[in-house]
């Protein structure tokens, strides 16, 4: 059913500008995505190898993204009127699979891995945008400190285990809270002193 609805939607995409294909084709095609999502979740939850399943979906999403880049940059496969779709459905599905796996890990009490799998896919676009466009050079130490804490987390967890401290979830929460408090303090100090710093270096 999902495939049939998708074909109807694509027929409207290709020939809709002619006025011959009814708008109902596109409206019915909107039902394809939730049906595909249902099938994807069912398959991911019951497959024997989730890694291979995810890899297949991810490779399809990469292919779709490459096709969109070709349409946008090189004008390939566009309609005669210049329209082209912005379909990131498979990329969204791949991200949802990571979040789904993270929820499973949280259910298995694998707190750190589960939180990373749930939070990072949602936060990464905002983090990447901030790093590329909005983070001044003087805020980079905060970013580097965050990377350092994340990289050191497994080693420190093992060191704590040697002291019979096995509550990794509590350690993760404490680390996150401390980092956020430090980040707020760092940003406040930066905001208060950046003007003076720029005046000094601009002389």
What report would you give on this structure?
By secondary structure, the protein is mainly α. Helices cover 79% and strands 0% of the residues. It is built from eight helices and no strands.
What key phrases describe this protein's structure?
single chain; 203 residues; mainly alpha; 3 domains; 8 helices; 79% helix; flat
Q: How many structural domains can be distinguished in the coordinates?
A: 3
Helix content: over 70%
Based on CA atoms alone, the radius of gyration comes out at: 24 Å
Q: Please count the beta strands (DSSP E, at least 2 residues each).
A: 0
Structural class: mainly alpha
Instruction: Look at the structure and give the mean pLDDT.
Output: 80
Main beta-sheet strand count, sense and barrel state: none
- First-to-last CA distance: 70 Å
How would you describe the shape? flat
Number of helices: 8
Order of helices and strands, N to C?
A: HHHHHHHH
Indicate the topology:
Elements: H1 2-15, H2 23-29, H3 32-46, H4 50-74, H5 89-107, H6 111-134, H7 140-162, H8 168-201
Helix pairs in contact: 1-2, 1-3, 3-5, 4-5, 5-6, 7-8
In short:
The chain is mainly α. The chain has eight helices and no strands.
